[in-house]
């Protein structure tokens, strides 16, 4: 039994040392630079920050038309594109800015 364990340990040691082929030495530097640039862009994204999260119209008479504009700023590092806006009530019709909203 001891010989079997010793043989398995020796086999494992040889197997693991044979796998040490230094993959880092095989890295193409130009591809590494391209990957770094790609990864840097992945960290750039838009952030939508609202001045207020909700608005209360108070008491509204039937048939009265009320309107409110939610102001927001793109505080991120990339252009923001609003592709859709939904309301929780069928009596509300949202509109939004078309096109890209630059940071700031």
TrEMBL record:
Record bears the keyword Acetylation: no
InterPro entries recorded: DUF1573, Ig-like_fold
Highest rank taxon of the organism: Bacteria
Signal peptide range: 1-23
Entries under Pfam families matching the protein: DUF1573 (PF07610)
Keywords in alphabetical order: Signal
Protein name, per record: DUF1573 domain-containing protein
Source organism per UniProt: Psychroflexus sediminis
